[in-house]
Fold each of these.
Amino acid sequence: MIDKHSPMPIYYQIEEAIKERIDKGEWREGDMIPSEREFSEMYHISRMTVRQAVTNLVSDGYLIRQIGRGTFVARRKIQQKLFGLTSFTEDMKGRGMKPGTRLLDFRTVSASGPIAEQLQIPDGGEMYEIKRVRSADDLPMALEITYLSEDLVRGLTEEDVYGSLYGYVEKELGMTIGYATQELESSVAREAESRTLGIAEGAPLLLIKRFSYLEDETPLEIVYSAYRGDRYKFVVGMHRNRTDSNG
Ligand code: 16G
């Protein structure tokens, strides 16, 4: 199973072997996995190599190390499907989890620069800047900074964004949210993010920038979010375009 001649480093092969056992259900959430010594005997490799693989899987959120007890399979990551345009509240409710919001900041700022341009706010206009920590079953999952044109959603209050922003826009304002584009990139938590999300500095983060539009193409929001890399994974759906000539 472990190929010492493969160009893939051995610790990486161990990581893949452990993930495969979790995926196949051989090891389930809460199960204790073999010790470093047992792994090193099983695969005839050094304990240091095992430790590196396990440490990586701990920081990626697949395993949990409990000092003095052992290493255990962590809870499955939340999978967010990027097939339809949904809100955080809808995503969490759809999974039977309780959505929550901690409001860090809510203010109007004068609009300038690329954000103002993308939201099509004229010079001298104002925009809402909202910082929220989104949680699932009381566990912080993501930090979101949302920008909206004040003109478009005038009268928005703190109360409105404790709940669902999309719910407010659609139910209270009667607007129809149409589509969004999203950029994803990887990063690591700095001090401020580690404090708000309750993770270690240097822990993996997924940064997402979403531009949402109303059905009539009016820009609705620009949202910068940082999702915990140990708790989240994004699943993308793809259709092959059969009309293209693919060579
Ligand atoms: C999601 C969206 C965010 C949107 C929010 C509305 C991503 C990356 N971001 O968090 O753009 O503002 O949902 O959620 O999915 P709400 O209706 O629960 O406030």
Amino acid sequence: MAKQAPHAFVSLGAPKLRSTNIWGRVSVSVLPLETRHQRRFGAVRLRAALDLPMTLGQWVLQQERQHPETADLAPLITATATAGKQIASLVARAGVSNLTGLQGSVNVQGEEQKKLDVLTNEVLKNALRSTGKLGVLASEEENEPVSLMEEAYTGDFIAAFDPLDGSSNLDAAIATGTIFGVMRSGEHCLTGPEDADISQRQMQCLVQTLQPGANLVAAGYILYSSSVIFMLSIGHGVQGFSLDPAIGEFVLTHPDVRVPERGKIYSFNEANSDNWDPVLQEYIRSMKKKGYSSRYIGSLVGDVHRTLIYGGVFGYPGDKKNPNGKLRLLYECAPMAYLMEQAGGIATTGKQRILDIVPRDVHQREPFICGSPRDVEDLLKIYQGSMAMRG
Ligand code: AFP
């Protein structure tokens, strides 16, 4: 019985190569077709490969052209991104490098410092110091604003940051983040009356850090999670950059972030709910009735990032035990509020816009509620209603 010829390849109209196969029949080779396909899809792949998202460095240069008034922020942004990459690497390797656990010291707020709290504070400080752009630096991990009498601290900017927020989650490999805000100093921090002594000058530096969030000229956070994401605003919307491990650069993956008008998630530490005021309790009950879901990480950067991307509301309110809540105004609430507003959202204490609060203290705490405009407005309406009732 004659062997049956294998099924000839179906042509899609491409030019064909004819050849004889082992059965002596003419067969249509797939080669030209494959070549065409390879050429076509190879070209598409090549284009896709060349169509790389903009790097943070390219974006910074673009901003310098589009918004020249922000040009002097460039070194600070670049330095923060570099520190973010170093911190991301420290966080990712914490388990293997024996960097989990406590440092054995306590910060000014009475919190036990993790090894990485201390290390990341140095990383960020050194990166910002090298820019020569900073006059003063305030950190969660520093008792007082740092205005060392050093040449490096001679710039016109003030930075406030939390180098590793959510570090209590670290040993369980849960998301953490760096939060920062940048303001301009009214006058050179270390200049002053000729006869001013060091403590007077330092006092002057301290006073300059106590500016409301409305004075921020840049703010952002870096999230260390399943990917490393740098969300940044310099006053022209919010841009999100992801760290591309293939090239070791942040690339623009979330251009012009807008928080959804309304979300489906509320995010509060409900364990505190018995101590909340009745308005907030009523608000959360109404959210449950509307079918909202609850999500809470206990890591501000992770919780705010989810709220920015998916919408909804996040809050750490005051309660009977802690009337001002837990979050620090200067380097947690204000930068997050700035980002939230730049993305079209709202950030409030429930009674006051976060960005309007003038700090009295570097480590001052404030109730903080932020998120989708419609969701936060619902809460504000209940607060306004209750105030009207009380007359
Ligand atoms: P840690 O830096 O001590 O982990 O605190 C994190 C944080 O300041 C903030 O990131 C969270 O939103 C908040 O505390 C969580 O606080 P609760 O554990 O009381 O919910």
Amino acid sequence: MQSATDSFLECNAQGLRQAKELEMNRRNAHRQVMKLVLSVSLWVPCWTALAQAMPLDVLHWWTSAGEQLAVEQLHASLLLSGVRWTDVAVPGGGGMAAVKVLKSRVLMGDPPDVAQLIGTTLTDWNDMGLVMPLNAVANRQRWAPTLFPTVMKLVTYKGVVIAAPLGIHRINTLFYNRHVFTRLGLLPPANWEEFEGVAHKLSAQGIKPLAWSDEAWQIATVFESILLGEVGPERYRELIVNRKSSAWLEPGIEKALTRLRWLRNINGDTPKERAWTDATRDLASESAAMQIMGDWAKGELMAWGANPEKDFGCVAVPGTQQMHLYSVDTLAMLSSKNKRTATQEKLAEVVTSSPTQLAYNRAKGSVPVRADMDVASLDSCARDSWSVFAAPGSARVPSLAHRMAADEATKDAVAQALWRFLITPQMPAKAAQRRLASAVRAP
Ligand code: GAL
């Protein structure tokens, strides 16, 4: 029989063995943990580098030839800085479809890294906490002293910089085909009386005076230029920015609506809803002699090989000389689970740099957002747009049709009211004025 001492010693030895084992395990575990920590610490920077090197997902509605050429300019500049971008290009001029796609991606918890969000939609998305602040980039790149004040104000919300501006489009642009005008000895019209004279001569030659589309956003784009010329910049701001509902019942609005209806019927054919590029194609092919559209149409014509000094020209829509009805394209960086901050900031930095600004805007048809640019190398339309926007005495007014002035719902309600007025010939202008007055009524 084993003595108490033996069993104590035995037990002690066992305890020691277990303690040693435990110690070994602890050390092993510690070693394993340290190994894990080490590999993770080595792995995280690799992952971050990998994540940063991954292309940025960029959602926008630039799908036409000119728009795609401009996007390629951005691609090329960004690649030089090691930034790659994957296009999520949603067709549909004016961006209504793109905004819908963006909404659904965000709801599915899969927002893109970057999105074309412009004007008032920017602040809406920022209020939802989805937009990444760019103050660090703005300070580093000295945006406040170099960008146009109107642009800096547009991308700053409650002291936070919420987007990178790309270019300023001029909506109140009348394009004309130089070959047709030279052949018929015509001059681009500066007022509506001259426009009527030119249109009369063109119709007499069997040429459609004005390329047209019945798409609601295109109708709204034409209308806001006519309205600006009819009522002037101050009244325009009352109507569109301050949304003074009663002002929509004034005679100036009736004149602008009557002018709009006259323009739609000027070709004597049955207008159709078609892409803006189809209307621009009419101008290029001389089946129509003029078009009222934002100057993205210039980017398109140039992408088709037309030369703004030889083949087509542009002037301000009659009655809007020295006025700039603007729409500024901007890119917002969306906060997503991918944590792409460094790459998103780099994108914001590159797209606002002078060389990229020139290359992008030359192709896009818009003009640089920087007030310190030398635009001598741009075409005459661009130089005119930029200098009118830059001139202290000019009237710079925000486009409603392109989200610079009111929320999405108001923009759409106004476009619908105008469209309804045009496709209902028996609707008197006064009835449309009442619809517009309620459409803009501030909530
Ligand atoms: C505008 C946009 C422009 C141009 C246009 C036609 O809303 O700001 O960049 O693309 O739509 O699609």
Amino acid sequence: MQEIKITTTLTCYDNIEELPQNIQELMQHAVEARKKAYAPYSKFKVGAALFLENGVVVTGSNQENAAYPSGLCAERVAIFHAGAQYPNVKIQQIAITATSDNHINKTPIPPCGACRQSIAEYEMRQEKAIEIYFMGAEGKIMKSDSLKDLLPLIFDKSYL
Ligand code: THU
């Protein structure tokens, strides 16, 4: 028997001004996307902005539905849009921001498990790490250098 420890390293920025200029701009795109969320049920609005290697920024926001599971998270709206419109263009970075209408979230809000799995698929498909930056409404921002740092023991096509 053997114990296995899995560790991960993230970078934490104190505020948006501390981010590199290009990422500040990407996060601003995510903030604008967040304002377009359709979240009448949860009142929780999420925005995601992807920077593609061709310089295009693709954004998404969560889109809810009266039949709750029919809705989709912001991150998947964005990456599926990128996959549909730019299938052979690599994603370099993703910026995510989320907040409730009921209170201002000031801690970094990471992507949910289903979104991590979806981002993992794209990272493996493009064979290049995707940097992920996530924040609440404002305040600290966390960064992972790769989706792999957010999802240990990824299920992927090698198991099929
Ligand atoms: N949501 C996202 O858009 N991304 C996540 O990673 C977590 C959750 C959305 C789904 C739903 O519309 C609302 O936030 C509350 O869960």
